[in-house]
Amino acid sequence: MSDNSEAMAARRRRYQVIDGGVGKRDDFSGRAARVDGLLRRRWRELNHEHAKMQRELERLRRQNTELKKILFSDPMTGVFNRFALENFLVERFEDTERALLIVLDIDHFKKINDTYGHSVGDQVLKRFGRLLRENIRIGDAAVRYGGEEFLVMAFGIGLGDGLRIAERIRTATESEKLPGEIAITVSIGVAAGRSPEWEAIFAMADGALYQAKRMGRNRIVAADDREEARRPQFYRYIPMAG
User: Fold this and answer.
1) Distance in angstroms (rounded) separating the CA atoms of residues 98 and 181
2) What pLDDT digit, counting tens, does each position of 117-175 carry?
């Protein structure tokens, strides 16, 4: 058979019907369509799996947030607890160039518990926790240190701004009335430092709180570590508003 005859025969075979189906060119198109269908189906499956994974990640994020809340929050007051303070807040405080500490103690809390019962005492703690959250800045931290004693850690501010925060908390507490016209007040100690060591600043603020209690409670005392004070700690009484 000549070369031309073989070429013509090959061309005829290319277009002939095979087993009742389409020719070779059409068979290639069919296979391409099937592959395309498989790819599209796999793409849909992958999209479905991706969406499923995203939902699972979101669930885990919410769960992680809830676990952190349980781990680091005081359930009674909604502020940070002692565990949070010791695990990351102290480190953050010491790493901040300018940080201020406010130590607060609810006045006569034991008397409130003894007179009105622990349920009223719990209400006092809950109200005070809410007052702290409402009167500190975003980014600052309120901590229940123990019992009726609380801390506010303020970052990036000096003593003047810290005293304004403390006075805002004091006046808000004084204005709060529980059922039965039960009044609550708070004594406050404030200390500030530059690149502070936690233990030193805490001792100063706690000492200032002690002075506030000695001076009659429901007031603010600031600890001042200026060299011109001629002594390591020097307490300055901050008059109450009005």
Assistant:
1) 40
2) 999 999 999 999 999 999 999 999 999 999 999 999 999 998 899 999 999 999 999 99
Residue 155 DSSP one-character state: E
Query: Of the listed 45, 86, 148, 199, which one is catalytic?
Result: 148
- Within a domain: 184: yes
**How far apart, in whole angstroms, are the C-alpha atoms of residue 236 and residue 229?**
11
Q: What's the full length of the chain, in residues?
A: 242
Q: Which domain holds residue 56?
A: 1-72
Report how many domains make up the chain: 2
* Residues 6+ positions from 126 with CB-CB distance below 8 Å: 76, 77, 78
The helix (run of H) or strand (run of E) holding residue 222 is strand 220-224
Write the pLDDT tens digit of every residue in 13-51.
555 544 444 455 566 677 877 877 888 888 888 888 888
Does 77 reside within a domain? no
Q: Compute CA 48 distance to the chain's CA centroid, rounded to the nearest angstrom.
A: 33
Domain identity same for 97 and 171 = yes
Query: Contact, 25 vs 16, CB < 8 A?
Result: no
Is the domain of 116 the same as that of 226? yes
Can you tell me the distance from the alpha carbon of 70 to that of 84, in angstroms, rounded to the nearest whole number? Answer: 11
Tokens of 169: 């908390």
Q: Is 148 a catalytic residue?
A: yes
Q: Name the strand (E) or helix (H) holding 193.
A: strand 186-194
Task: Point out which residues pair with 105 in neighbouring strands.
Answer: 149, 187
pLDDT in tens, 190-211: 998 765 689 989 999 999 999 9
175 shares its domain with 233: yes
- Phi, psi angle pair for 23, to nearest 5°: -70, 180
For residue 62, tell me if it sits in a domain: yes
- Report pTM: 0.72
